[in-house]
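# step 3/5: fold
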Amino acid sequence: MSETIGFLLNDSARLFRRAFNARTRDSGITALQWRLITYLKRHEGIRQGPLAELLEVEPITLSRMVDRLVEAGLVERRADPTDRRAWRLYLAPRAADLLDGMREIAQSLTDEATEGLSTVEREQLIALVERVRANLSRRECLKETA
């Protein structure tokens, strides 16, 4: 039986997360927390609501994750100068070192996952998956504006 692309992508992502979590267990950082930190590096100063949307988690779930990362000294909450009810999120200086280590783990895991693929095949795989993501993102954006 041939699997659908959706099943294969979802199952591969699940296996990747599980392997990543196993390799980072000693650091105390989960794959989802690493995603949060990575998004925060790209969007420093973002408010919690938009970050929850990016991560596709409920705001209360994000709030708890941020609480843990603040306690760990990896994330800082700063008052939003335009809205005193809101917080803006920033990486703490300690997060930079952690990100470097996590990148190494992710790269090692990626190398393992793509073992046996040539450089050209790896580049093709990335391009094809990026195209699938763009197709789905565009359709989701079209649905939201309709």
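# step 4/5: annotate
The domain at 29-94 is CATH 1.10.10.10 (Arc Repressor Mutant, subunit A).
# step 5/5: archive (pending)
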